[in-house]
Structure formats: structure tokens, C-alpha cells
């Protein structure tokens, strides 16, 4: 028996939005942000863990991050992993604390970062549209199997479209904010 659940659709789309915003946080804008390093994977105690799980990351100034490992004996391993993460930074290890100076971004690099954000936005929009398509397919099948009326099917599809439009707008708003932040000098 088919039962349209608006809350479930919203929850699924919210997860896609959350994933998008998580990706945006990892894209570097003009100033230092702990999110830039949070997703770096570090192999400690025989397993891969995110940097934020093994160290605290803080902002020293606009162009410097500080990483303080919870276990000071792992500082050299963390330093090496940050260096090898392909982020274009050269961390400096000083008495158990790692300073990560971030180079100033050129205009070309800023535009490249915006393009990366746009790609994340498009991927998220596709995920949301796929959720819409799945829900509409379920509704059409239920109508075809005579579980719901044609009017109910159209009402459900209209509700799903409203939810879809709302989440696409949220993605576009987040992308717009991040793009302005990146391009602001």
C-alpha cells in the first residue's frame, strides 16, 4: 500500500543539502577556516581517521591554521599527512603544534574554487532531482495500481515539486554566498 510521506522526502533532500554544505566548507575561501583541514585523513593507531577526530584545529589569523594533536606523539604523523593531502600547503611542526600557513589566493585560483563549488552544487541538484523522480515514480505506480486517485497523484507530485524547488533554492543561495566569500578580496 502506497503512502506519501512528505517528511521522508524532505529528510532525504535535507541530507543532500547537508552533504553539499559539508563540501562547501572544505573549499577554501580567502581566509583560513578549520573546515579546510577537517576532512584530511590521518592514519593513527592502525586506522584512518579524520583530522578533526585526532586534533583540534583553530584559526590563528586570516592566513594561518593551528593544529594541536590530542596525543602529542602523533604530531609528526599528522604533519606528514597534511603535507601529503594535496592541499597545496606546507605545515610547520613546532613543539607538538602544527602551524599551517595558507598561501594568498590569486584571482585565477579564486575562480577555480568557484567552479569547484558550482560542480558540487550541480551534483547536489541532481541528487535532489533524483529523489523527486523516485517519489514521482512511486506515486505514478500507486495510481496505476489503483491504490490512489489521479487527483491524489497530482497533489503528491505538486507537493514533491514544491519541496524540490525549496531545496534547489537553498543550494543556489548557499552557492551564491560561498562564491561571494571566495571572490571577496
Features:
single chain, elongated, Topoisomerase I, Chain A, domain 4, about 15% strand, alpha+beta, about 60% helix, 4-stranded antiparallel sheet, two-stranded antiparallel sheet, Gyrase A, domain 2, 2 domains, about 180 residues
In short:
With 185 residues, the chain is α+β, with helices and mostly antiparallel strands. Helices cover 60% and strands 16% of the residues.
What's the arrangement of secondary structure elements?
Layout: H1 6-26, H2 35-38, E1 41-44, E2 47-50, H3 51-54, E3 55-61, E4 64-69, H4 75-84, E5 92-94, E6 97-101, H5 107-144, H6 150-183
Helix pairs in contact: 1-5, 1-6, 5-6
How would you characterize the largest beta sheet? 4 strands, antiparallel
Q: List the uncertain runs.
A: none
Briefly, what CATH class of the largest domain?
A: Mainly Alpha
Number of helices: 6
- The helix content is 55-70%
Rg over C-alpha atoms, rounded to the nearest angstrom: 22 Å
Q: How are strands sequenced across the largest beta sheet? A: 3-4-6-5
In the CATH hierarchy, the architecture of the largest domain is: Orthogonal Bundle
| Secondary-structure element series | HHEEHEEHEEHH
Helix and strand content put the structural class at alpha+beta
Subcellular location: Cytoplasm
Keywords: Cytoplasm, Protein biosynthesis
Family: Belongs to the RRF family.
Main location: cytoplasm
Amino acid at each position: 500500500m502506497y503512502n506519501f510521506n512528505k517528511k521522508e522526502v524532505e529528510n532525504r533532500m535535507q541530507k543532500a543539502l547537508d552533504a553539499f554544505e559539508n563540501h562547501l566548507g572544505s573549499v577554501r575561501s580567502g581566509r583560513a577556516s578549520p573546515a579546510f583541514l577537517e576532512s584530511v585523513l590521518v592514519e593513527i593507531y592502525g586506522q584512518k581517521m579524520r583530522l578533526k577526530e585526532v586534533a583540534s584545529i583553530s584559526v590563528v589569523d586570516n592566513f594561518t591554521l593551528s593544529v594541536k594533536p590530542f596525543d602529542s606523539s602523533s604530531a609528526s604523523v599528522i604533519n606528514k599527512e597534511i603535507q601529503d593531502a594535496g592541499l597545496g600547503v606546507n605545515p610547520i611542526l613546532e613543539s607538538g603544534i602544527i602551524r599551517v600557513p595558507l598561501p594568498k589566493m590569486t584571482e585565477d585560483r579564486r575562480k577555480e574554487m568557484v567552479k569547484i563549488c558550482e560542480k558540487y552544487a550541480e551534483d547536489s541538484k541532481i541528487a535532489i532531482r533524483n529523489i523527486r523522480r523516485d517519489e514521482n515514480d512511486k506515486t505514478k505506480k500507486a495510481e496505476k495500481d489503483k491504490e490512489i486517485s489521479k487527483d491524489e497523484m497530482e497533489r503528491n507530485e505538486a507537493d514533491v515539486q514544491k519541496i524540490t524547488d525549496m531545496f534547489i533554492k537553498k543550494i543556489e543561495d548557499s552557492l551564491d554566498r560561498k562564491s561571494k566569500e571566495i571572490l571577496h578580496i
